[in-house]
Specification:
227 residues, alpha/beta, 8 helices, 43% helix
Length: 227
C-alpha cells in the first residue's frame, strides 16, 4: 500500500531522521572520508524499477573510477532481477516488502549486517524518502553522499550532498552524485550496461511469436504505468 508507505515515511520518517541526526552528533562527529582510498562502496536505491536502471550509468562510472573497489547495492527484492543483469555489483542486498513483518525483519537484518561491512562510501540515490537516508546514516560511518531535496528534511544525514533538480533527467542527476564521489562520468550518461542473457532472449522471442510479432516488424513499446 503505497499511500501507507508514504504516510509512514513522512510522519514517522521525519522525526526519526532528526533523532538519528542528534544521536550521530552525540556518538561521533561526521567527517569526509578520503574517496581516493575507497575500497568498499554501497549504493542504495529502493523505490522504482526504472530508477534502478537509470542509476546504472552512475554505478558504471564509479566502477571505472575505482577499479580496486567492490560496489554493492541495497534495494528492494522486486528490483533484484534487473540489478543482477549487470557486472557492476559484487553483492546485491534486498529488502522484502511482501508484508510488514518480513519488511521489518529483512530491513533490520541488513541494517546490522551492512553496518558491519564498514563501507568507505555510501551513496543514496533516493530523491525523497527519509527511510533510505536513515538507513545510510546508520550504515555509513565515513562518507555518505545523497540528494538535498528541498523540504524533505533528510539532507543533514549526509556528509556531502547534491541539490536535487527535477528539471534535469534522472540519469544526469544520478551521475551528479557519482561525480561528487570522485567518479568521471563523462560519456557514461547515455550508457546502461545491462547484460542480455540467452535465457531471457529466448523467453522474449517466444513471447513475441505468441503475439504475432515477426523479426522484421518495426516494434514500438509504450509503458503507460506510473505511480
Amino acid at each position: 500500500n503505497w499511500k501507507v508507505i508514504r504516510w509512514v515515511d513522512i510522519y514517522l520518517g521525519i522525526p526519526l531522521a532528526y533523532l538519528v541526526f542528534c544521536l550521530k552528533g552525540i556518538v561521533g562527529a561526521r567527517f569526509d572520508a578520503d574517496t581516493a582510498g575507497c575500497r568498499k562502496i554501497l549504493l542504495v536505491k529502493f523505490w522504482g524499477l526504472g530508477n534502478v536502471v537509470m542509476l546504472l550509468p552512475a554505478a558504471k562510472a564509479l566502477k571505472e573510477s575505482y577499479p580496486g573497489a567492490t560496489i554493492d547495492l541495497l534495494t528492494l527484492s522486486s528490483n533484484k532481477d534487473i540489478s543482477s543483469v549487470t557486472d557492476i555489483f559484487q553483492d546485491i542486498y534486498t529488502i522484502n516488502t511482501d508484508n510488514p513483518a518480513i519488511f521489518i525483519c529483512t530491513a533490520l537484518r541488513h541494517l546490522i549486517g551492512l553496518k558491519n561491512n564498514k563501507y568507505d562510501l555510501v551513496i543514496d540515490f533516493e530523491q525523497f524518502a527519509r527511510f533510505s537516508s536513515v538507513f545510510c546514516a546508520f550504515i555509513g560511518e565515513k562518507e555518505r553522499i545523497g540528494f538535498n531535496t528541498p523540504h524533505q528534511h533528510r539532507h543533514f544525514l549526509y556528509t556531502r550532498t547534491v541539490v536535487y533538480d527535477d528539471s534535469v533527467h534522472v540519469v544526469s542527476a544520478f551521475c551528479g552524485l557519482a561525480q561528487l564521489a570522485g567518479a568521471d562520468n563523462r560519456g557514461n550518461a547515455a550508457v546502461a550496461p545491462i547484460l542480455c542473457r540467452e535465457a531471457d532472449l529466448g523467453r522474449m522471442n517466444r513471447l513475441l511469436r505468441e503475439l504475432g510479432v515477426e523479426k522484421h516488424d518495426f516494434l514500438v513499446l509504450l509503458h503507460a504505468g506510473t505511480s
